[in-house]
Amino acid sequence: MKRNDIKTIYCDLDGVVFDTIAAIVNLYNEDYKYYKDYKLVHWYDIESWNFEECICATYTDINNYFNQPRFFDELEYMPFADVVIPKLAEHYKIVFVSHGQQPNLVQKKELLRGIFPFAKFIGVNWNEYKDKSHIDMSDGIFIDDSAKNLITSNAEECICFGDEYEWNEKWNGKRISNWCDLEKYLL
Fold first, then answer.
1. At the N or C end, where does the chain have fewer CB atoms within 10 A?
2. Which residue in 14, 19, 144, 145 is the catalytic one?
3. What ranges in the chain are assigned the alpha helix state H?
4. Catalytic residue selected from 12, 19, 144, 145
5. Which residues form the active site (predicted)?
6. Active-site residue flag, 131
7. Any catalytic annotation for residue 12?
8. What is the residue range of 27's domain?
């Protein structure tokens, strides 16, 4: 049953709707497999925000992946996100709020227009904002995998999504690990 206390679901993309870690790791493995110190990396090996486990790549190399069109070719949904989001849209306004550099944000907007045309997209340029706190989310629930974004939000309720990582391990609020559980919680 729909929750009447909220109107809008604000939802992060990377690590929530899309398996960004797997996409970055796939690109890394493709680009660095012939390097001397290369070791195959799996998505489940990643524990650090900066992908330090990808030892052949620099921080800049990893960040550049996010802005490349081939990054979007690698993206896959987090399990059941593509099924649950349209169901939620029948009851709530859906707003995707994503943090990134301008090329990444433009490509995300185009991608979302094709797959979730009912949703609104707000791109937050990380060269201007350190978090998403300037977005008014007071009429809804905010779902993100970053504790920093959740802590600074004015949303009615904040939910940390997915596995525990260094970027969310100190979150003490509500956690939901997958889209099936999120559907049960919200509908």
1. N
2. 14
3. 20-32, 59-65, 69-74, 81-89, 102-115, 147-152, 179-186
4. 12
5. 12 (nucleophile), 14 (proton donor)
6. no
7. yes
8. 20-74
